[in-house]
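Re: the pair you flagged

First of the two:
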Amino acid sequence: MARNNECIEERSSSYRVRLFYYDENGKRTSISETFPFKKYGTKQKAKDMAKQWRDRSKVEIANNMIIKEKHFTLDEVFNGMMELYQCSLGTKKKVLGTYNKYIKSYTKGETRFSDIKFDDIQKCLNNMCSIAKDDTIQRAKGVWKRLYQYAIAKEIVQRDETFNVITPKSDLITIKKKMETSFEEVMNVVNLIDCKIENHRDSILMQGALIIMWYTGMRPAEVFALDKNNIDLDSKSLYVCQSVGSTSTMQNTIKKTKNEYSMRHIPIIDELIPVLKTLIDNSISDLLFIRDNGEIMNGNFLSSVCQRLTNNVFRPYTIRHQFATRLMTTGIDPRTIQELMGHKESTITIGYARSNDMLKKEALRLLRVN
């Protein structure tokens, strides 16, 4: 190793600058910075940048402007980001899981954050292609972006290394989930719950939830947040204004709906009235879906029971997709369906609706006739 110029040390692949000075307490200390040849393109460019940093730092030392440099690790940046990241506990759990499983395991938590570059992030995401689905890879990229937003705001780094990162496609074959069901299938599950679930209140609540979903298309989280005050049997109207989920401080609690478009009035058809009356008569509070243990029933619980009773064949959320399909295939205009579903965009509503074999055969028949 050779020392060229004052305070600049030439190494095999970089220049290192180190300046010694006395702090306000009279203690001898130092600051340093490394300038890799690869990062700056050429050896000469790295040397020029090293000189600039040296000269600027000398001025700062002379004017008592120097601040002892602290190097932040990937873990430290992530922890700092999570402290400021305002989201629900459920979302935080997903972000933490993604970080630990895919980011930290590949890019080591003790790595100095400023040393992480574009190709490290790209390789991290590429490495996920054989083990994760597209939405998981997209989530990991989102976590990387949040890390850089925080690091730039805190002046830990100056540049967002995710800017040119390309989100790779997963190599895993995604099997499309079954999104069709029928009234007979739903009632079969209702009967299974009636026969197999020993807890009487849980049984009534789950049966009621499935039937409400069939006749209203509501999200499970919206159904389980229903309050007596949301239901007007005289005018046959049901008001959706809240849902069950997690907030930044609580799990499984009542909160606002997804957005303003999710707040809506849904007409109550005659077939639904006895179900709602049963739930109201059996309720132990204004909230209809309170279990014996005082907790609010939620979609995860209902889904796990339904899948267990049907050997993973039936998922409650399928009812919502079928609701959109039934309306679409009977000629209801998309705007009405969108408002009943509580969607912000009509394209989301169309995405929920599924075609079926009968419609496909009819389309081909008309094509042949024409």
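Second of the two:
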Amino acid sequence: MNILQRAAIAGLAIASVGGGFAGHAYAAGSTTAEPLFTRYARIYDAPTLSFGAEFFTNKPLEEIGDFDGYTLSLDFAWPINDRSQLRVLLPFYTNGDGQYYGSPDKRGVGLPVDIEGFNGVRDFFSLIYERRFGWLEDKTGGNVAWLIGVGRSMDPLEAKFGSALVDRASHQGYSTDIGLKFDDDVRGGDMTLLGSLLLRSFWTSDDINLSGGGTNFQLLTLSGAVMFNQYGPFTPVLEAVLEADFEDYTAFSLAPEAIYTFGENFDVKLGIPFRLTADGQDYAVDLELTYRFH
């Protein structure tokens, strides 16, 4: 089953789930949806839950090549007040297949393996605190927030040849996050601009280093998005994502997206990020459901 078939099946399942809701997740002070990768700096005005499904091809992994599969995740945000909120990120299942080489240089003939685990690839179970920068907002005229977080790998991704365990990836380790976010409505609200800078550090990780350089490494992610808000419940989005690990890995991707809003509390998002560089996964299909508990 290829990535498009998997995405189609998930889309049907998501549509059936979505039929039971009637709403859309608004950010405080905004009547627009939110992109897949670059989140608002403004604080939500109610608890918000998102379910995400990413179907990817050739996702980089240290000792495994041609890694095709999918990851399912939850993202829950709880506003503490109008200036801060707490987020819980839970990547809870990954499944796919690839070629196991046993070394980062991936030379020789790979062993076909099935990969499965209750975890993400480079996304761990994380707690993240976000707070708006009041004085910086006064200077920029937009919404600005900083964030800090900590994560932990909760379960291994097991690579198996038949029923035999070949290796484990991401079965240990911690991550820390620090970052900045910005957003602003322009052209009278017809467009929204968003930007995000995130530095994620991995500690005592296993087989997930993008450059194959050891268990401790850092990944810098810079993303930006422009949203076109003048089409009623339909919101086109163009997003760009740059990732670099300060060693040999630099990936740049573009992601055209479409968001459709149902009522006031619920929206469905679809994006197709594809790379423009030699590094990075080839492309993906991202689906997300967001529900806001008013």
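The radius of gyration is 19 Å.

-B.
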